[in-house]
Write a structure and sequence with these properties.
By secondary structure, the chain is of the alpha/beta class. The protein has a single domain, classed as Ribokinase (UDP-N-acetylmuramoyl-L-alanine:D-glutamate ligase). About 35% of the residues lie in helices and about 20% in strands. The chain contains eight helices and eleven strands. Strands 1, 2, 3, 6, 7, 8, 9, 10 and 11 form a nine-stranded mixed beta sheet that branches. Strand 10 and strand 11 form a beta hairpin. The protein is globular. The protein starts with a strand and ends in a 14-residue tail after the last helix.
């Protein structure tokens, strides 16, 4: 659906008071690309761009109330899920979203832990959790999250499975080398997206920003491969925008 010519996208994520991550970062990325963002808050985090104190997770009932009132007005074809406390909540979210709209494009940016040492996402056994991943179109983990979710055991058979049943974009920002290379498993094939590593350039909320930029470009009708390419360019601008941990690329930069 559109408003004043802008398509809609939905972010289901935590509220970060600094504006660098979570739903505020998602909405800013959506707007940059001309997408009208709406949001459901899963957590009222206590943090700034330098320090994380606690996650402040909301109950499922509170999350459901927000979803219900938004769905009274419209359905959503493009949805991003961010910070959530557990596999149980993820399963409830996916069931609800697929019931309201059988075929939305859903991105999950898994957030397993914070640099302050907090562990967020509680999973269940791989046998009961793994089948639910097929209800997600794209998962965007970093290396630690890739391993934690059981995706990092990739033999050739599993690579085919994660490329066909659901797509995975493994972010390469924490790897070593002159290039930061992300790996996308999509439709049974692997694709690589490389960019020069920006030494000394770090920002708060890069994972949120990348995944929401991908969703925004999908909402605009781009293919997944093109959406990832454009989002990677946007993230490079984000990383170079100023010296603080907060990114603010200008519209004229891209």
């Amino acid at each position: 659906m559109k408003t004043q010519g802008m398509p809609f996208a939905l972010s289901i994520a935590g509220f970060d008071p600094s504006g660098g991550a979570g739903i505020l970062a998602d909405i800013k990325a959506f707007e940059y690309f001309g997408v009208y963002g709406q949001s459901v808050c899963t957590a009222l985090t206590i943090q700034n761009e330098n320090t994380f104190l606690k996650p402040g997770f909301l109950s499922w009932e509170s999350i459901l109330e927000q979803l219900e009132v938004l769905h009274q007005v419209r359905h959503y074809d493009y949805i991003k899920i961010g910070l959530i406390p557990s596999a149980a909540i993820l399963q409830k979210l996916l069931a609800y979203l697929r019931e309201k709209n059988p075929n939305p494009f859903i991105i999950w940016d898994p957030i397993v832990s914070a640099s302050a040492g907090y562990h967020f996402f509680e999973t269940c056994s791989a046998e009961s959790f793994y089948p639910h991943l097929s209800k997600i179109d794209l998962i965007t983990p970093n290396q630690d999250e890739f391993i934690y979710l059981g995706l990092g055991l990739a033999d050739s058979r599993q690579e085919i499975k994660i490329g066909e049943e659901f797509s995975v974009l493994l972010k390469g920002g924490h790897q070593e080398g002159a290039l930061a290379t992300d790996t996308l498993w999509f439709q049974g094939e692997k694709h690589f997206f490389s960019a020069p590593r920006l030494i000394g350039k770090s920002k708060h909320g890069t994972g949120c920003t990348l995944s929401s930029a991908i969703l925004a470009n999908l909402t605009l009708g781009k293919s997944l491969l093109e959406a990832v390419r454009v989002a990677k360019d946007y993230l490079s601008l984000y990383l170079q925008s100023g010296e603080s941990l907060l990114g603010f690329p200008k519209h004229s930069d891209l």
